[in-house]
Amino acid sequence: MSLILLGNEALAQGAKDAGVKVVSSYPGTPSTEITETIAALGGVYAEWAANEKVAAEVAMGAAVGGARAMCCMKHVGLNVASEVLFTGAYTGINGGLVFVVADDPGMHSSQNEQDTRFYAMSAHVPILEPSSAQEAYDFIRLAFEMSESCDIPVIIRMTTRIAHTRGIVVPREMADAPVKPYVKAPQKYVMMPNNARPRKYTLMANLKKVLEFAKENGINRVEKGSDNTGFICAGGVYQYVKEAAPEGSIYKVGMPYPMQCDEAKAFADSVADLYVVEELEPVMELQLNSFGIFPKGQDTFSKFGEYTAESVACAIQGEAMAADTITDLPGRPPVLCPGCPHRGAFTAIKRLKLNAFGDIGCYTLGANPPLSAMDSTVCMGASIGMTHGAALAQGEEFNKHAVAVIGDSTFFHSGLDGLASVCYNQSNITVLVLDNGTTGMTGHQDNPSTGMTLGGNAVAPIAIEDVAKAVGAKNIYIVDPLDLPKMQATLKEAVEADGVSVVIARHKCVLIDRSKKPMYEVDQQKCIGCGMCLQSGCPAMRKENGKVNIDPSMCRGCNLCVHLCPVGAIKGGC
Fold first, then answer.
1. CB-based burial of residue 328 (10 Å sphere; 0-12 exposed, 13-18 middle, 19+ buried)?
2. pTM, whole model, 2 decimals?
3. DSSP string covering 306-364, please?
4. 520-to-454, 517, 546 alpha-carbon distances in Å
5. Radius of gyration, CA atoms only, the chain
6. How far is the C-alpha of 60 from the C-alpha of 153, rounded, in Å?
7. How far apart are CA 127 and CA 423, in angstroms?
8. Phi and psi for 158 in degrees, rounded to 5?
9. Is residue 130 reached through a cis peptide bond, with omega within 30 degrees of 0 on the bond before it?
10. Other residues' Cβ atoms within 10 Å of the Cβ of residue 190
């Protein structure tokens, strides 16, 4: 039986068929569908953790407890989980442990282009990189087998193109992977210095086992073509090379770290002209150089963004790598949805002329015109610490003109630490939590405040206001951000108050709020064409012939435009 699956779905199916027992993840594009698919398939315990570090710790605990376990995240999530990976490489595992990390060349939905393969090199753990949905299915099974046979965590590196491309997958029978007995082994798992030092030698020995395992299982392969030109490549880049240079020989690398020295040398000797083609960083090129192999690599191919077959072909021909060839289409920057409650909060920030230190989520779009209400976005949870730091640099008066903006899911991901720290250090900052009742940016996953688990079980929600009070916030406010006058007055009061203030702007995401609301329309006789209502950036509103109209098919009845109109020209419609 064949299936047509996304790369992420294929990986999830492969993990289930490999006998995975525990999956703990944090959502992040382009990795989110893996854990969602696992949960939908059933028969596997799957959860959303508060953040990637917790997810990695849960998976590590399950693996030490004897079960095959997996945690999934996007590339920047590995920054959060890396401590577990680095030390887990020393301890080794019991049941198989796989980290699935989805990189995002081209930054389709990310704030940077970091390359997970460097994490593998630094932590001394193997990394496998599939180039199709079928390989995603096959490699996850091999990853569990490698992890157990070599006593080491294994990374599967997905990229946006492989994660979100469909392909034909032929599944195999379920693996027999019973939970292994739990064995006390403090010298193996308690990483105090006296235990950790000998474990480093064990780790290096395990890496040699990894190389043997890869060779025995054919993870890398040679596709013989012309002796004139050879290509070393992996992952999605393999598909581009196949299309750009169909006559060339290819050493298709399934494990970009550690690379097989003997295989690479034999392939290099078999061709006259050698290229190594890899998106982002020269991870394979550096290893090849250490083997005494010096192919054409980063000096020929770009270090920026996502490749295409055309861009690879241009580079091989000695031309500059081609950019996106679709140039005749208008740009479509992402915008907040019509009716998004975040618009009210950002409108208030802009009216009060506050400096807003932002965070990762839908509300990052508040930085775009016409809202233009956010000054920074660096990483998950950074808004609170950065606001405190800016006040230390600029002086206490700065707090009356600044606010940290963070979402409900991000608050539980990494905002708690920041809030506890600023309360402890007696800051006077204001934290604005945009609580829309979901993890919106990645597709509406639940979080600790929503009262629902990934498995659909109702649980007691953790109230943000209770947590804020518990860690020492002095002033706590709850307000509907679409009540603009109250939103603005509350925020003004908060920034002028002494001590840490937490303003919770609570209104459900428009995509999960199913309540019926009246649509709005513009009285063309009253409209003076001032454009004040357009400053919210709502896609439902447009200006034609000097007057504003509201598209009834897009209006969600949020009424923010009513508060913005200075002449009362907007009224409830059908």
1. exposed
2. 0.89
3. ---HHHHHHHHTTSPPP--S--SSPP----PPTT-THHHHHHHHHHTT-EEE--SSGGG
4. 36, 9, 19
5. 26
6. 9
7. 41
8. -100, 160
9. no
10. 11
Q: Helix, strand or coil for residue 205?
A: helix
Strands 520-522 and 570-572: antiparallel
Helix (H) or strand (E) segment spanning residue 62: helix 52-64
3-class secondary structure, 38: helix
- At 459 the three-state DSSP class reads coil
Predicted confidence (pLDDT) per residue in 14-55, tens digit:
999 999 999 999 999 999 999 999 999 999 999 999 999 999
**Is residue 481 packed enough to be buried (19+ CB in 10 Å), middle (13-18) or exposed (0-12)?**
buried
**pLDDT tens across 168-201, in order?**
999 999 999 999 999 999 999 999 999 999 999 9
How many other C-beta atoms are found inside a 10 Å radius of the C-beta of residue 537? 21
Torsion of CA 340, 343, 345, 346, to 10 degrees: 150
Per-residue burial over 499-531, b if 16 or more Cβ lie within 10 Å, else e, is ebbbbbbbbebbbebeeeeebbbbeeeebeeee
Q: The tokens of 9 are what?
A: 């779905």
Angle at 164 between CA 27 and CA 304, to 5 degrees: 90
Q: Which two tokens stand for residue 469?
A: 């009070």
